[in-house]
Write a structure and sequence with these properties.
Elements (H helix, E strand, L loop, with lengths): L1 H21 L1 H4 L9 H12 L3 E3 L6 H5 L3 E3 L4 E10 L4 E9 L4 H9 L6 H6 L1 H6 L4 E6 L9 E5 L5 H5 L3 E3 L3 E6 L7 E3 L11 H235 L2 H9 L1
Parallel strand pairs: 1-7, 3-8, 6-9
Antiparallel strand pairs: 2-3, 3-4, 5-6, 5-8
Length: 447
């Protein structure tokens, strides 16, 4: 199958080479004077607009900086433009400026304070103070014979396309923005008669003749380039013929590969015999594998049990996940509360500092109170000891009182007995007194 794919690939390659050899456009190649198609197209579109665009080799810095391109979609050239401000000794590069944009609109981001940033305002303050009407935009004239550098004055109200019409540009336009009161120091070409302004008209006529000679030289150069392109096309055709020969050689190699394939098939038969022997060995291995399968069945059962446990764990994990989500929501709420608590804590810290000061004062008072309490405790201990002694005395007194009470009761009983005896004596005395004579009584009274 791989050999067949390779053979088809070679056939398709040969067909593509043959089609390229028959196609005039492809045979001409994708280069014009060693330029890529898109860059050659850009030169053609510029030429159609009356602008001669010269391109440097790829190794030049200006070629690397140039990002000018032609848009097929809206049929517009987007230029890279370099703005040079000699009176500020600074320059800026803009990319993708449409050829249809008025020059004043493209320049407004540097001249108008409303459209420029702070950095540009500081660097171009003199230009912005002068305004758009007090500046001139100059384009250096390329390939013009003169001892001095010459410039074209551009109309800021016209588009970039109109300003570049009839001009020669190297890679991209470099525009000099000059204050009007400094414009006299630049040699400006008069667009009406094609001569330099007033002072060097004779040099302009010489320059015109030199320009015509230069144009004729350019024409001869273009003819040479056409001859060179023709030779390149012939060289391409020779290369295509060589490719055809290589394709034939590849076909021969393919036939040779087929023979090798037959030999390989024989080797394959031998390999098949070896494979039969290997199959027998494989049967023995299968028996061993059956034993291993039984062990695997047992292991599978264990795995099923583990899977069930895993499913249970997954359910628990889902439940934990939901709990985690709920906890996260609570955590968000807690964070908000924590922020509020932090604020309250700050206030509490302040109150705590005040409380600490009060606590220190209370601590000192407590120490003083503790000392007084210790003194009171010692006095209380002494009072307790006295109270215990008093209690013992009171107990002894109680016992004495009880003994006295017992004695009092005995005395009372004796007193009652004496009282009864006295009453009895009184009765006896009364009885005796009633029986005695009055004289005896008086004697007794006298006695």
């Amino acid at each position: 199958m791989t050999l067949l794919n390779d053979y088809r690939f070679l056939e398709d390659s040969a067909s593509a080479i043959d089609n390229a050899a028959r196609d005039k456009l492809k045979r001409a190649g994708g280069l014009r004077n060693n330029l890529p198609n898109w860059l050659y197209r850009l030169k053609v579109e510029a030429k159609l607009r009356g602008t001669t665009l010269n391109i440097f080799p790829a190794c030049f810095t200006k070629r690397k900086e140039n990002s000018t391109w032609y848009s097929h979609k809206d049929r517009t050239i987007y230029w890279t433009v370099s703005w040079v401000f000699p009176q500020a000794n600074i320059s800026y590069n803009d990319k993708k400026i449409s050829e249809n944009v008025p020059l004043s609109s493209a320049l407004a981001k540097y001249i108008s304070p409303k459209h420029s940033n702070v950095e540009v305002q500081q660097q171009l303050m003199f230009y912005q103070a002068a305004g758009m009407k007090a500046v001139k935009v100059l384009l250096q004239a390329e390939f013009v014979s003169s001892r001095k550098t010459r410039y074209y004055e551009l109309d800021v109200s016209e588009s970039l396309k109109e300003n570049l019409r009839g001009k020669t540009i190297v890679e991209y336009p470099v525009l000099y923005v000059v204050l009007s009161n400094h414009a006299s120091g630049y040699s400006v070409i008069d667009p009406d008669n094609g001569s330099k302004s007033e002072t060097e008209s004779s040099e302009e006529s010489e320059s015109d003749s030199e320009d015509s000679e230069s144009d004729s030289e350019d024409t001869e150069s273009d003819k040479k380039d056409m001859v060179s392109d023709k030779k390149d096309a012939e060289s391409d055709n020779k290369d295509m013929e060589s490719d055809k020969k290589d394709t034939v050689s590849d076909k021969k190699d393919t036939v040779r590969d087929k023979k090798d394939t037959v030999s390989d098939n024989k080797d394959t038969e031998s390999d098949n015999k070896d494979a039969e022997s290997d199959n027998k060995d494989a049967e023995s291995d299968n028996k061993d594998a059956e034993s291993d399968n039984k062990d695997a069945v047992s292991a599978n059962k264990d795995t099923e049990s583990d899977n069930k446990d895993a499913e249970s764990d997954n359910k628990d994990a889902e439940s934990d996940k939901k709990d985690t989500e709920s906890d996260n929501k609570d955590a968000v709420s807690d964070n908000k509360d924590a922020v509020s608590d932090n604020k309250n804590a700050e206030n509490d810290d302040k109150d705590a500092e005040s409380d600490d000061k009060d606590a220190e004062s209370d601590k000192k008072d407590a120490e003083s109170d503790n000392k007084a309490a210790e003194s009171d405790n010692k006095a209380a201990e002494s009072d307790n000891k006295d109270a215990e002694s008093d209690n013992k005395d009171a107990e002894s007194d109680n016992k004495d009182s009880e003994s006295d009470n017992n004695d009092s009761e005995s005395d009372n009983k004796d007193a009652e007995s004496d009282k009864k005896d006295a009453e009895s004596d009184n009765k006896d005395m009364v009885s005796q007194s009633s029986s005695k004579p009055v004289a005896e009584v008086n004697k007794d009274e006298v006695m």
